[in-house]
Amino acid sequence: MHNDLLRETKTPLPKEEIVSTLGSEKVLQPSSEELTVEPDSRAIALASAKRGVSWGSEKGLLPTAVNGHQERLKLRKPCGRYSVSLPFKENIQENVNLGDFRSIASKRLDLDRDPKLNNLYTKFIEEYLSLDHMEEITNIDDITSEEGFFLPHHGVLRAGNRSRPLRMVLNGLQKTDLDISLNDVLCKGGVIQDDLFSIMLRARKHAYFFSCDLSHMFRQIQIHPHQRHFQKFLWKKGLNEPVQIFKLKTVTHRTTPACYLSTRVLKQLSLDERENFPKAADIVLHDVYLDDILGGCSSLNEL
Which of 28, 135, 201, 297 is placed for a possible disulfide with 303 were both Cys, Cβ 3.0 to 4.6 Å? Predict the structure, then answer.
């Protein structure tokens, strides 16, 4: 039976054609022709049979789920920050069961840390809390809930980096017992920024050049509260300390849509503030690559 489930089958899907271009975003429209594609993940077939879930797919540069998601980017809080939703693939419900993820995250909880790493890790967690980028789960129903996803994590020492000596890596690629990860069910989205070569070429035409980066770019953008249970993780300060459960409140690095969500919010910010800051909006719209800004001016006064 499993062999039948895991066998790749060809499914006819409507071919999509690019019918117009808005900036660097491509709008897709189905044509009357058909294109045959093959599912590339045996986990989709296996999990569908086990859980009765109708799994979707990403078609084209900007999937339907991501296209529709753009409208929700208009949710801007009074403080100026944007709140976005995780773009799940087509036909995937937000209460999708991804399998047993808690036990895997628990096994990956590294308790045998050397004192230096443990101290840096603890400071990193405390900073995350102080910046309101995550919150502890204390409600008993939420603690015992099997909904969402637990992200395994580990710390990486950054030799020579005095300001940020440790980086916390959250693994959205971790498979559960159903051989599915959080990243498997999320849309990646398209590339909506100019290519790096064009940005660098434009920067060289200026008499005065500057470069900078956006601090904590992903963490400046909030995830809608009803989806934060997909970004839970376990934490324990030491062997004799209780296990705590946290959920991240912001866009998380190494999740599939992180780059798209952050660059799309930057684009929305430039459009929303164009009237107030026309020059800055133009730079953010055209001269940003991921979180790096490369720009310039013709005079020091303008700079």
Answer: 297
Instruction: Give dist(CA 56, CA 89) in Å, integer.
Output: 5
Structure tokens of 195?
Answer: 């290519």
Long-range contacts of 263-271 (CB under 8 A, 24+ apart): 263/192, 263/193, 263/288, 263/290, 264/70, 264/73, 264/84, 264/189, 264/192, 265/73, 265/82, 265/84, 265/221, 267/23, 267/192, 268/73, 268/74, 268/82, 269/82
How far apart CA 16 and CA 152 sit, in angstroms, is 37
pLDDT grade for 74, boundaries at 50, 70 and 90: low
CA 295 – CA 203 distance, rounded (Å):
5
DSSP character for 230? G
Token output for 40: 């590339």
- pTM of the predicted structure, to 2 decimals: 0.72
Nearest to 172 by CA among 161, 185, 163, 181: 181
Beta-strand pair 83-84/222-223? parallel
| CA 302 to chain CA centroid, nearest Å | 35
Given a cut of 90, whether residue 238 has pLDDT beyond it is no
Q: What Rg do the C-alpha atoms of the chain give, in angstroms?
A: 22
